[in-house]
Amino acid sequence: MGKFSIAIHGGAGTITPSSMTPALEVKYKEALHQAIERGSKILASGGKALDAVQKTVEVLENTPLFNAGKGSVFTKHGMHEMDAAIMCGKTLQAGAAAGVYSIKNPVSLAREILEHSDHVFMSGYGAEDFARKQHIEFAPEDYFFDMFRYKQWCEVRDSDIFMLDHTVGDEKFGTVGAVALDMDGNLAAATSTGGMTNKNYNRIGDTPVIGAGTYANNDTCAISCTGHGEYFLRAVVAYDISCLMEYKGYSLQQACEKVVMDKLVRFGGEGGLIAVDALGNIAMPFNSEGMYRACQMSNKPPIVAIYKDEIKAVSEL
After folding, report:
1. One of this protein's Pfam families, by short name (predicted)?
2. CATH of the domain at 196
C-alpha cells in the first residue's frame, strides 16, 4: 500500500477578504474541512479514489454555500438545472449527466452512469429516467431554494443577461470538485455544478464534458476545473494538462501553470483547477482573486485556503 493525496475546490473567482464577512469565511472553511475529511478518511482506510471523490463532492453538494446540488443557482425559468461528471483513472471509465432537475446529488447519478450503463454522457429527461431506474435520490423543488440565490436571479430574470457565479460582489462562488490518488495508485476526478444564474437554452458548461472540466488517467493526472466554462470547453483544459504531461514530459505543476496562467489568460478565461498526479503531487492554480480549496496528503494535516496568497505552493505541505 502506498500513500494518498486528495484536493477539493468550491469555485474560483473574485474572492477577496473585502468581499467576505468573518462569519461567512468561517462557514466556508468549515464546509471545506468537512469535505476534505470525508474523502481523506476513505483514502486512509484503503478505500478507492473513485469512492473518495464521489463522497467528497456529495458533501459539497449538500451545502447551500456552493453552486452545486442544494446550492444550485436559478435558470432563466426559475429552475435548478445541474451537471456533473466523474472519471476513473485506472479504467478511463467515465459517467456524466447534464441538465438534470431535482437530483439531490448529481455526482451520484454520474457514478451510476459510469457503473451501470453502456454510455458516458446522459442529459435531461433521459438521465432522470435512468436515475429513477437506479433508485437515485430525488429532492423536491423547495430543497434547492435559497433566498440569496433567488434574489440574485430576480435582478436579471427579466433580461437576457446571465451571471457567472463568481462575479464581483457575489458572496457565493461556483462549481465544486475533488481529485484523489488512493493507496493502490489509482486516480479519480469528480465535478458538479448548477451552472450560471439565468442561463437559458439548456446551456451546458465544461463540468460534465470529459476532457474539458473533468479528467483522470493513471498515466498522468486527475483534474477538476472551475471558472467560466465556455473558455474551459474551448481550451479542453483538463485533457490538455494530461497531454502536456504525457507527450511533452511536463511535471504536474508545469502543465497546470502553462494552461491556467498562460493559455487561458491569453484569451480571457478566468478560473482555476485542482490536480493530483500519479506520484501524489498536488497543484491548485487559479488566475482569479481566489479559489475555495483544500488538500491533504498521507500523514499530514489538511490545508484549507480561500484567498490568493494563503498558500504559495502545495510544496509547503
Report:
1. Asparaginase_2
2. 3.60.20.30
Instruction: Tell me how far apart the alpha carbons of residues 213 and 206 are, in angstroms, rounded to a whole number.
Output: 5
Strands, E, within the chain: which ranges? 5-13, 82-88, 94-100, 121-123, 176-181, 187-193, 214-216, 221-227, 271-277, 282-283, 290-297, 303-307
The Cα 196–Cα 213 span in angstroms is 15
Distance in angstroms (rounded) separating the CA atoms of residues 52 and 58: 10
The active-site residue out of 175, 193, 220, 226 is: 175
- Hey, is 283 helix, strand or coil? strand
Quick one: pLDDT band at residue 145, thresholds 50, 70, 90?
low
Active site annotation includes 167? no
> Rounded mean pLDDT of the chain?
88
Q: What is the mean pLDDT of residues 289-294?
A: 93
For residue 195, the model assigns a pLDDT of 73
30 three-state secondary structure? helix
The total domain count for the chain is: 1
Backbone torsions φ then ψ of 179, nearest 5 degrees: -130, 150
User: Which pTM value belongs to this model?
Assistant: 0.91
Give the position of cell 448548477: 194
Which tens digits make up the pLDDT trace of 22-46? 898 999 999 999 999 999 999 999 9
Angle 22-44/49-61 helices, nearest 10 degrees? 160
Q: What share of the chain is helix, strand, coil (3-state, %, to 5)?
A: 35, 25, 40
Residue 239 confidence (pLDDT) above 80: yes
Domain that residue 21 falls in:
5-316
Determine the Cα angle at 22 with ends 21 and 24, to 5°: 65
Structure confidence by residue, pLDDT tens digits, 148-198 = 665 564 565 655 555 554 444 443 447 999 999 999 999 999 999 987 655
106: enclosing H helix or E strand: helix 106-116
User: How remote is the C-alpha of 170 from its chain's centroid?
Assistant: 19
Q: Cell 482506510 appears where?
A: 45
